[in-house]
Amino acid sequence: MPPFEVPEGDPFGPNNLPYGVFSTSESSDRRVGVRLGDHVLDAGAAALALGSPYASLLARPTLNPLLAAGRTAWSDVRRALTAWVTVPAHRETLAPLLHPLAEVTLHLPFEVADYVDFYASENHARNAGRIFRPDAAEPLTPNWKHLPIGYHGRAGTVVVSGTDVVRPSGQRKAPSDAAPVFGPSVRLDIEAEVGFVVGTPSPQGSPVALADFRDHVFGLCLLNDWSARDIQAWEYVPLGPFLGKSFATSVSAWITPLDALEEARVAPPRRTHPLLPYLDDAMEEPAGYDLRISIAINGQTVSEPPFSTMYWTAAQQLAHLTVNGASLRTGDLYGSGTVSGAEPGQRGSLLELTWNGRDPLELPDGKRTYLEDGDVVTMSAWAPGPDGSRVGLGEVSGRVVAG
Amino acid sequence: MPPFEVPEGDPFGPNNLPYGVFSTSESSDRRVGVRLGDHVLDAGAAALALGSPYASLLARPTLNPLLAAGRTAWSDVRRALTAWVTVPAHRETLAPLLHPLAEVTLHLPFEVADYVDFYASENHARNAGRIFRPDAAEPLTPNWKHLPIGYHGRAGTVVVSGTDVVRPSGQRKAPSDAAPVFGPSVRLDIEAEVGFVVGTPSPQGSPVALADFRDHVFGLCLLNDWSARDIQAWEYVPLGPFLGKSFATSVSAWITPLDALEEARVAPPRRTHPLLPYLDDAMEEPAGYDLRISIAINGQTVSEPPFSTMYWTAAQQLAHLTVNGASLRTGDLYGSGTVSGAEPGQRGSLLELTWNGRDPLELPDGKRTYLEDGDVVTMSAWAPGPDGSRVGLGEVSGRVVAG
A127 CA to chain B: closest CA distance, Å? Predict the structure, then answer.
């Protein structure tokens, strides 16, 4: 009998082992935890109890020391953890270090260095182009197929799943308004994304090649890039989104290591334009991921965006982000951009799902164009694992509260 | 006789006292220093030698603890430092703690949390509009007079004055090119800016009012927002500048406390449009600063931008930055945007000084449209102090090197 029993088919079985940071009602000390089913293993305490050398990486209040340790250490620690949770002899030692998930508090698992957000779904970019520039012949901007468009967001307002999101106030101006007005956003939206977490830093002046993606990126999480469309529309020309996005970005409490997602790797969609060499992944290993995302508002599923449809991969995004010599730091986070599939039921934002309010969603408690105070948005996802199993991603959830 | 003699008229006299972080050839330990003329006082060692309670803020490797201590502590520490450097009895104690500026190494003085860049000079925005949209009737975008336009930059690539800047590579595409090409930027530019350093944090969901600017902002520095115009032009629609800016941002090694700039406060230019209440500074104390900036390339002055001409003040920028509930962290840095005066000799970028290359500058070693490898760009500034004195800002300098 293994030390910990996880029900057959549980997406958080011993082949998953995502990392988070938690505290308990007995101790407010933050520590690294590893999720197993509906329990959390105190990974640092386990390392200490078993005399593991990895205690120096795991008995810490954030994931940053583990992130900074690099690819070889990540694999070694994962191998050790796999042994701990599967070898029956450890049962007595480790059982007291297992906490029910419902009884712990989960924290932001790492200190975010820089946060960048991309725009990598062709479906999303086409939908946004059609909505905002209905008269344009081509919904994509001329650069879209040549580079993964991105911009920097606010690292200081990245919050962990479960944190309430205060409805932002700001300026907005409808074309019919003579002057801008100020008030709470009336078009508060979501964006379902996948966030990639950088572990290994890189020096200023040294681009990171496509092939080195897995040496630098530790893992991924779900990310909700909350967006105030009315604030964004008035402010974003010419320097891009600012206050329409900077009030909050939610991430899941669990970081899934790339090592847990080997079976989920897929080739990205066929490229329609030739790529410059630093972005050309035709000869690289597949760097897309088959993640099946689900978005629910107040418990009702409203969309199921497939991450496998993303035109630009996380490896291309990292290569682009650094090609000008920009350095990477441990804790850098970058979002994929809104994930939207080709079908209407696969769109990753209310902007697209309601076509900017024209086609409201029907929820049990009424119609929705954009979010109302009290709405709880929850994104979850899973990926194919070995032998038909599923690898679960931690959910990212947040409730909208009035400002 | 005071403990330290600073020549009459030196802009780094005892009414200035900017803060930096330095190390010496004897000890690589980083410590807080205060500049006095062409010397640096080891402020933490001084506090320890004099039994000051401020040793806990000054005997540290970065300014962050001092920044986090808040407005009252900033004033108290400044008062103490002023006494130390002016009371003759301290001479014997402090003389050994004074290092010649030429013999120390200066470091990035604080850990940058988030970096935001604004666009607050009307002259600069009009020049940029005329250059990039020559056919438009109005060079300013419709939002420009209603809000201080800004965007997030890359905090991880903020470097201290003296750091070489590697010419970035990236994609560019001239209108006549069929497809983008890749290579080193051929339009590498500068932007002369003033950077504001946040000390006191603010919680998520709580805007910072105009009147609270000085409770949150500790001081300012000079900032060079290096810009690759060709990379920027191809990438920036629709989400703003990214790789055209993210390769490096240089800041001066010295942070001048706002308390040293009381005599330099001036009213901003007359507002031509009514402002929403959160930005309306008509009844506030003047929040502009009369800083006289000078830009030199390879030692030759090419421009003298006056900071007093900025349309949006740093107080308005902070109020705008937080009005959506975005939190502040100790170490947040925000740039004013390129400082350009009304006259051709007051423009803060080569884009404007050479009108995008049309009117090259004449330098002793030849013409310049944009920067060449080996060029050294140095920005310096001073502000009026008490009794006709000058308060110097630390220079920000950087040399362009080939990638």
Answer: 14
Query: Are the beta carbons of B236 and A234 separated by less than 8 Å?
Result: no
Chain A CB within 8 Å of residue B171 CB: yes
B243 and A157 within 8 Å at the Cβ level: the answer is no
Binned at pLDDT 50, 70 and 90, residue A1 comes out as: low
Asked if A327 reaches chain B (Cβ–Cβ under 8 Å), the answer is: yes
Task: Give me the CATH number covering residue A267.
Answer: 3.90.850.10
B216 catalytically annotated: no
pLDDT of residue B2: 64
**In the listed set A107, A140, A170, which residue is the last one of a domain according to the structure?**
A107
Q: b/e for A357-372, b at 16 or more Cβ within 10 A? A: eeeeeeeeeeebbbbb
Convert the pLDDT of each residue in A240-292 to its tens digit.
999 999 999 999 999 999 999 999 999 999 999 999 999 999 999 999 999 99
Domain that residue B55 falls in: 19-107
Residue A8 counted as domain residue? no
Interface pTM, i.e. ipTM? 0.97
A4 pLDDT above the threshold of 80? no
A156 with B113: Cβ contact below 8 A:
yes
In a domain, A179, yes or no: yes
* Subunit contact B324:A119, Cβ cutoff 8 A: no
Residue B7 lies in a domain: no
pLDDT in tens, B326-363: 999 999 999 999 999 999 999 999 999 999 999 999 99
Is B278 in the same domain as B156?
A: yes
Residue B304 lies in a domain: yes
Question: A157-191, pLDDT tens digit by residue?
Answer: 999 999 999 999 999 999 899 999 999 999 999 99
pLDDT tens per residue, range B197-238: 999 999 999 999 999 999 999 999 999 999 999 999 999 999
Domain end (from A107, A139, A158) = A107
3-state secondary structure chain B: CCCCCCCCCCCCCCCCCCEEEEEECCCCCCEEEEEECCEEEEHHHHHHHCCCCCHHHHCCCCCHHHHHHCHHHHHHHHHHHHHHHHCHHHHHHHHHHEEEHHHEEEECCCCCCCEEEECCCHHHHHHHHHHHCCCCCCCCCCCCCCCCCEEEECHHHEEECCCCEECCEEEECCCCCCCCEEEECCCEECCEEEEEEECCCECCCCCCCHHHHHHHEEEEEEEECCEEHHHHHHHCCCCCCCCCCCCCEEECCCEEEHHHHHHHEECCCCCCCCCCHHHCCCCCCCCEECCEEEEEECCEEEECCEHHHCCCCHHHHHHHHHCCCCCECCCCEEECCCCCCCCHHHCCCHHHHCCCCCCCEEECCEEECCCCCCCEEEEEEEEECHHHCEEEEEEEEEEEECC
Q: How distant is the Cα of A315 from the closest Cα of chain B, in angstroms?
A: 16
Mean local confidence (pLDDT), A343-348: 97
pLDDT for A150 equals: 98
Which residue in A239, A277, A332 is closest to B149 by CB distance? A239
